[in-house]
Amino acid sequence: MRRQALKLLALPVLLAALGTGPVQAAENFKIMAPANPGGGYDQAARALGKALQEAGIAGNVNYENKGGAGGTIGLAQFVNSSKGDPNALIVVGGVMIGAIVQNKPPVTLANATPVARLMAEYNVFVVPAASPIKTFKDVVAQMKRDPGSVKWGGGSKGSIDHISVAMIARETGVDVAKVNYVPFKGGGEATAAVLGGHVTVGTSGWGELQEFVTSGKLRAIAITAPSRVPGVNVPTLKEEGVAVDIGNWRGVYGAPGISPEQRKALADAVVKATKTKSWAETLQKNNWTGSVLTGAEFERFVEDDLARTRALMVKLGML
User: Fold this and answer.
1) C-alpha 314, offset from chain centre
2) pLDDT, tens digit, for every residue of 78-104?
3) What CATH number has the domain spanning 122-247?
4) Cys bridge to 187: 115, 126, 202, 208, which one at CB 3.0-4.6 A?
């Protein structure tokens, strides 16, 4: 019995030496999606969690949704509740940058820990299948006649959605102040508003809207990409006569108060997750473009994006 017990005790060491089993159990993670379910933040959070599990890094992943104010309400909750937690992540992105610039909340990205940029995507503009609007040129013509008659639905004020609409108005000679823009807490709410006919035109990431477009419930009339996106049969704004293109990005930040070593471990874990099969499938399914960036380069990218967004909002009369 004693020899048998010694054999059992030695088994994990032997497996580890042979590389056939983990030395330690995978960590538990929690990921905050600072928006309501169904939107791009939510999709990115759950896709990353799945990839962390596939990579053998995460055992259990707990998700939390907290929408409002372009993600800054969720950010404040994350910062206050996750201090020092080396396995806590929050999804961030261009939408949050816009909300921070416009709303100047007390808690910003400066209160959390930069980890990694994950991907980029472009927005599409959609109308209900039964809408009399057939092309984006129809939208522009109606907006020029009566700006308030076109009710735009998208993410929070200051988001990429909002900025893109303001850019379109300015480019087509319409007073930005007269744009009728209705903000929603998440992509799911915005999509429901379009499906219900409560807004004239909706806009969000292609990954959030493609299932409704492919099923025929919504019709995509333009995309914010500089050129046609492979696999997405939607004309660009430029093709529709509007010289506007703008992209969105998403990444993750860690909790405040973690050590440099913990930050690096978290970044390494995220990078490893982006090399999994499930993450590759997510990129392909949603037509997201992988653009991983970590460390000081990611910090500079966020700082530059804040500056660009602020300058653009001033130019558009949004600040």
Assistant:
1) 24
2) 999 999 999 999 999 999 999 999 999
3) 3.40.190.10
4) 208
